[in-house]
Amino acid sequence: MKKQILYYILSFMMLISIIGITSCNQNGSSKSGALLSSAAEKVYVAPGEQDEFYAFLSGGYSGNLTVYGLPSGRMFKEIPVFSQFPTSGYGYSEETRPMLNTSHGPVPWDDLHHPDISQTNGELDGRWIFVNGNNTPRIARVSLSTFETEEIIEIPNSAGNHSSSFITENTEYVVAGTRFSVPVPQRDMEISEYKGNFKGALTFISVGPEHGNLEIKFQILMPGFNYDLSHPGRGKSHGWFFFTTYNTEEANSLMEVNSSQNDKDFIAAINWKKIEEYVNNGGGTMMPANYAHNVYDEDKHSATSTMINEVLTVNPADVPGAVFFLPTPKSPHGCDVDPSGQYIIGAGKLSADLTVHSFDKMIAAIDAGKFDGDAYGIPILKFEEVLAGTVKSGGLGPLHTEFDAEGNAYTTFFISSEVVKWKIGTWEVVDRKPTFYSVGHLMIPGGNSRKPFGKYVVAMNKITKDRYLPTGPEMEHSAQIYDISGEKMELLYDFPTHGEPHYAAGCPADLLRPNSKKFYRLDENNHPFATKTAADARVERDGKDVHIYMTTIRSHFTPDNIEGIKVGDRVYFHVTNHEQDFDVPHGFAVLGANTSEILVMPGQTKTIVWEPKYVGVWPFYCTDFCSALHQEMQGYVRVSPANASIELSWSLGE
């Protein structure tokens, strides 16, 4: 009996202890206990399991696009876009070198910003992702089946291609807006003559509905302001596009002072449907231009570059009712449109408040002629006539806004280093969480569409400081993942990013996973130098050009012994990977090559050029560990003097 009483007493004390621990956790006075789900559990993806979301983060000055999983924060891939990438040979191989061609010649780098996933009816469809090159103005289309860059088009009359690369809700257009206004056409003139003489080009690039082919449809030549960011109308505002502007002063020196004088700058509202109709009816002016259009052919595993010498331009004065200015305080940066298409948010980076414009009020003001003058003939709508509301006491230095599916908006504040949650319609701040440190962009999966998926917000910070182990003067930029499924945001996890992310796009993994390419079918390889059987492997000479038709399969090259190469020859190794299995690439490198190695996917052909400078016997090998006999996957090339009479010969196993 005594033992039974003691058992009840101990059980009661244990229950009281559990209640106490739980109470402490609810009051925030103790770290998570064993009975509560922890932040670590929410981001943990068990071995062999996969993440719920893909996240595509721009690499900024890396020139490339990085792919992460959410909620784990694991980096899966770096997709080369605007920068040479020795890991795979992108930009080095003969097949991909044309992708980096421009009107300035080959440019092996850029500053990649603002990924945007293709949409149908305003919802993510997972076909492509578009990104912009900021320095040498370009737009790229990346396949979300192969995770490879398929097309890059250069943008003429542009500089600092920043208010890009956002798409309309049916992917009719991807838009590229210039940050820096320039003389159009370019010419020699005094910089001090900027005001009234420079132009800002807003470029609408049509996207082919089936294959995504890019073509510049028209450029709107706007006043010489700086066009910072943009987003499309959606739902009721479909057919419009909105761009933030700053430097409406048209200053050209000491910009931090001289371009911040006006109390309000503008959001430019563009009725692209009206301009499209004008252009389709023969409107616009064709002007000389010079820009590159680079396309990768998946069937031939090769890219081509075409130079184009004209572009169609539109003067907004020639299309009345197509362009309007919405006054917006102060030096606005972010320009974001809520899922309904009703509200346009302008984040004035020198303002403590957020300005929210109403699309319905804008249309009513246009119809009623509620204007407050004009700028270069473009009507300026009265501020109070288009204002839907103001988010007060948001923070300091607002930049970007994304949305969940519950009527909430989330805005980053750079100076006060926080993400602020507020209600659409009431403009009430309902939560705020610090970031570490100085947050720039943020991303909610689908948060830039009519159907946000919510659940997580990723904050991408500009400063890292003490978040990770030090790595010398330079640190990778930090990012934080927050759980937004409840009333209050919860910081879950820190993870490092690559380069400098300027925005991101996310989508459910189930949208992309079923269509992800596993390998290229060898029988569909139409590369002109493909070698589809080992029996077809050979070496051919054409003057000083030597073409080696080579195959590779675990664990040998065919051929693997080559003789008859001479100093001064230009040797093309055309390597075809005969594997027909997922995740079995082969690499190829040869000693003395002045390019990178190449990584050849199953069923693919790639070419590396080698110009031997010295007599000798030089090895080549597979750079990707492919089998237990990977180390044996090698070969030799004999190089003889330029005047030698050695005939070409090749072999395997002889």
TrEMBL record:
One of its GO terms (molecular function) is nitrous-oxide reductase activity. The chain crosses the membrane at residues 5-22. PROSITE patterns: COX2 (PS00078), PROKAR_LIPOPROTEIN (PS51257). Its EC number is 1.7.2.4. Keywords: Copper, Membrane, Metal-binding, Oxidoreductase, Transmembrane, Transmembrane helix. One of its GO terms (cellular component) is cell envelope. This is Sec-dependent nitrous-oxide reductase. It comes from Fulvivirga sedimenti.
